[in-house]
Amino acid sequence: MRRKEPDSCGFAAALQAIGGKWKTSLLWELHLRPYRFAELRRLLPGVSEKVLTQQLRQMEADGLISRRVYDEVPPRVEYSITPLGFSLNDAVTVMSAWGKHHETWKSQREAA
Amino acid sequence: MRRKEPDSCGFAAALQAIGGKWKTSLLWELHLRPYRFAELRRLLPGVSEKVLTQQLRQMEADGLISRRVYDEVPPRVEYSITPLGFSLNDAVTVMSAWGKHHETWKSQREAA
DNA sequence: AGAAGTACGCACCTTGAGGTAAGCTATCGC
DNA sequence: GCGATAGCTTACCTCAAGGTGCGTACTTCT
């Protein structure tokens, strides 16, 4: 999907914030507890390092998560969810519930 | 965004159903009242006929809207929302509310 | 000495949603 | 006959998200 125009509607903005392929998963994992970069890689099998970095940075810019760098060696970076990110997770959960409802509906229709 | 894998999470299914560029707008318009094809074209400036047809067909396949053909000449087709589509519109509204909240948050941050 | 882990950046390529333009069937108005 | 309208279908093109792979600076493990 293309996301460019403001669309006047707030949904476009929400989609802009969560539209990435891995963002919902990241949001879900981080809402449980903070994680380090390499831990997130392991949690999301199939994500490339480039894209993981990208999406984390975008979510940080959107204020959904915060990034904390510890000046140690070897380097350590921890990502954690913000209150705003937590509220988005709630909204996503509503959509997710509808999705499950929809899947039920579909399997019922296919059975008919 | 790519939408392929089931993802175990229902959110992917919901996104699959609503992910198209015009689907939320269509859902919104049709939740007000039924419309004909050409009316929807006029309501969504910029949509091409091909894509409008595509998205309407997909939404019909997902059970979000129903398509009624009147065997007249010139041909007449009316699209209306289903109860399932209506429930999705509610879920979308929650996300939309978050989007507005997020925009407020962003403009506050930029002001700082 | 060499391998491996950490948290990336950069260059290139693939893929599919969406856009563009044309055609198609049939009727009505001029 | 000529164009307009309604509701599509088909073929082709574009463009950005995401994937692949390599490079990096530093350290610890073996």
Automatic annotation (TrEMBL), chains A, B:
Keywords: DNA-binding, Transcription, Transcription regulation
One Pfam family recorded for the sequence: HxlR
PROSITE patterns, per database record: HTH_HXLR
InterPro entries: ArsR-like_HTH (IPR011991), HTH_HxlR (IPR002577), WH-like_DNA-bd_sf (IPR036388), WH_DNA-bd_sf (IPR036390)
Keyword DNA-binding annotated: yes
Domain HTH hxlR-type: 9-107
Keyword Transcription regulation set for record: yes
GO molecular function terms listed in the Swiss-Prot or TrEMBL record: DNA binding
PANTHER family named in the record: TRANSCRIPTIONAL REGULATOR, TRANSCRIPTIONAL REGULATOR, MARR FAMILY
Protein name: HxlR family transcriptional regulator
Lineage: Bacteria, Pseudomonadati, Pseudomonadota, Alphaproteobacteria, Hyphomicrobiales
